Amino acid sequence: MKTSIEKKNNICRLVKNTHNSHSPKILLAEDDKEMRNLLTLMLRKEGYRVTECTDGISLLDMLSSFFLPSKEYDNFDLIISDIRMPGVTGMEILMGANELDNFPPMILITAFGDKETHILAERLGAAALFDKPFDIDDMLKKVRAILLHSV
Q: Per DSSP, what are the bridge partners of residue 129?
């Protein structure tokens, strides 16, 4: 029987071994630290490279090259963003990116999902919208499906 330390070391090793420069790159924006840490851990366990943003302003900064053509940018294969965050919302980012070429697919997550939010997200081209609390495995399946078609 493995001790909790051995299990933790196995998880860390798994995260380290599945992370390589050819893995899809995900930009994750979530202002709730616990949710961001959980999603980052689960995505990295799946082998994805994850860049974290703690609010909408840092998300906008990471994506500024899409809006400012003169700036060099980091390519992301997928964006996962909370809708309600300080500064700029995930929905506002999606609205601004709606007409841009080569903008990565975007998954939105929210604790305040209603029918209108779902309709707007779909109309603006969101790849998916998950209402909190959601099943992490369902999100990972969606992430795999999106990346399979876009990478």
A: 108
